[in-house]
Amino acid sequence: MTFRTSFLTTVALTVTVAFVAVSGPTLEGQAARDKAKPELFQEQAPATFKASFDTSKGTFVVDARRDWAPGGADRFYNLVKGGLFDENRFFYVNNKVALFGVNGDPMVAKPWLYAKIPNDKTRVQSNVTGSVSLAQSNGRKTQTQVCLEDCSSMDPLNTPFGMVSSGMNVLERLYTGYGEMFPTGKAPSMSHMLQGGNAFLEKTYPLMDYINTATIVP
User: Fold this and answer.
1) CB-count exposure of residue 39 (10 Å: 0-12, 13-18, 19+)
2) pTM for the whole thing?
3) What is the per-residue pLDDT across 129-145, written as a single tens digit (0 to 9) for each?
């Protein structure tokens, strides 16, 4: 009786371990495949919401308002909620702006190159210090810009959907030493990021700051 119980227990444990070993990577792979499908991220954002970003320099919070830019707010909400900003690098930072929003997995980032959304027709909020918008130069896809000083000269291009409500000092400490994007400066080009992803950035740009996780908060 004891031998039979031990035998059955051993078999059960073996099956369980084997199931975990097979299922873990499969579930992770499925999550990555889902992130590579922009058509799955179409939820309408609440009228107002907060997004918290835990970064290598600390935490900052964005207060978003859908009435400022419905399309931009919806896209931002889906990117945060779907985990698309997790482990993103701040790939371009100077004294004026900080840019993030290129997923570190090239297989996820590349399909979003075609996920352009229309401009929001009416601009409510100017691009002042602390404003957050989708980068028009990227076709309002995933690249997100935070103004570190007054950027009102960008009003013809970028339509803010939110403001940094806390943690501007965090953003002001982001590393700026890589300068302009390649080939003008040392910062990575878009093709570098889309080909090499985070593995390339970690090796070639070790001082580049990054987002750990981004979450929708109450």
Assistant:
1) exposed
2) 0.85
3) 999 999 987 789 999 99
The amino acid that residue 157 corresponds to is L
For residue 21, the enclosing domain spans 1-35
Residue 213's φ and ψ, nearest 5 degrees, are -145, 150
For residue range 138-194, what is the model confidence (pLDDT) as tens digits?
A: 789 999 999 999 999 999 999 999 999 999 999 999 999 999 988 888 999 999 999
148 close to 129: Cβ distance less than 8 angstroms: yes
| Amino acid occupying residue 86 | D
Length of the chain: 218
Number of domains forming the structure of the chain: 2
Distance CA 212, CA 216 (A): 14
Half-sphere exposure of 59 (CA within 13 A, CB side): 9
Q: Are 113 and 208 found together in one domain?
A: yes
Strands 162-166 and 97-100: unpaired
| Alpha carbon distance, N-terminus to C-terminus of the chain | 55
